[in-house]
């Protein structure tokens, strides 16, 4: 009987090689090898030779060469087909295969999780070998697929380790819902007062809004605790910078100085904070129930670009305006020993805080920009 070479199609991932052999209705054929026969007779662990002998074909890997032999209906009709492939790099000796009525699918694991430039050691591609475009991915797409698989595995792992995962999602959903409602109330209230009272609303913003803002910002401390204990995967540092920076402005600058509470800067600080949060919190709230609105996603990852720097600028204005008041009132000054007879004005700390504030702006802006780039780059790849 004439021995022919079948059509073979291949694709790869970082850890595996996939081969599709175009043979249908393969019949039983055992590759005769005296050494294998002796091992079969003398050893129960025949598969230690890394040869998979099924009812319809024989497949084996020896010295990094894949051997295939089988009989079935291929490109040249009913015949015996065989081929050998010497791989570019080392593979594991175990071979998995599955036969169907139309083809034989083979999976070979790579020894190292690396991307290969080609399949075979020889540079010239064998004539019977072609890409399997049904499974073909380039390296970047394969990396994205690998990350998605790892995320699914991690999700399953977390679900198996955390029996109260539903409770965690429920807690995060309620937290984001409460914050959304709080900041929505602040934003709507300030907007309505602005339209009705005009500039006069600037001067009593603190007395109208402060109680709800105190509540929201005290609750926002959870945004530092949540990543610290592993409830969410965001970094602790960016959350700490934002939450503690806002609380410093709210409790120290506005809360301790009555003279600051009637200044227009309070309006701009509160309004800019609320404009950011009315888009951020509903985005995370919907993420807890695996729901996404494209417009909301775009707003969450875009609107901060002008608003966040403006918010920090407004905070800086508030700090600068408070420095003369702290100098005059000596409030929060640090007393020195009586022998020295003086104290360190809190205004010096505020001047240092201004430097730290703009350093924090740089850190958080870079963090948010990376988040945005990663989000929309991933969505663009999926769309392609």
Features:
elongated; 6-stranded mixed beta sheet; alpha+beta; 11 helices; single chain; 13 strands; 5-stranded mixed beta sheet; 384 residues
Could you explain how this protein is built, in words?
- There is one protein chain.
- The chain has eleven helices and 13 strands.
- It has 384 residues and is of the alpha+beta class.
- Helix 10 (304-329) packs antiparallel against helix 11.
- The protein is elongated, with a radius of gyration of 33 Å.
Layout: helices, strands, pairs:
Elements: E1 3-4, E2 8-12, E3 16-21, E4 24-27, H1 34-42, E5 51-53, E6 57-62, E7 65-74, E8 77-86, E9 91-99, E10 104-110, E11 129-131, H2 139-161, H3 165-197, H4 205-219, H5 222-229, H6 236-256, H7 258-261, H8 265-287, H9 294-300, H10 304-329, E12 334-335, E13 343-344, H11 346-383
Q: Specify the oligomeric state.
A: single chain
Strand percentage, roughly?
Answer: 15-25%
Span of the ends, CA to CA = 48 Å
Radius of gyration from CA coordinates:
33 Å
- String of helices and strands: EEEEHEEEEEEEHHHHHHHHHEEH
Largest sheet properties? 6 strands, mixed
Low-confidence stretches: 28-55, 380-384
Tell me how many strands there are. Answer: 13
Shape, per Cα inertia axes: elongated
Overall mean pLDDT stands at: 83
Percent of residues in helices comes to 40-55%
Number of helices: 11
SS-derived structural category: alpha+beta
EC number: 4.2.1.134
GO molecular function: very-long-chain (3R)-3-hydroxyacyl-CoA dehydratase activity
Pfam families: PTPLA (PF04387)
Protein name: Very-long-chain (3R)-3-hydroxyacyl-CoA dehydratase
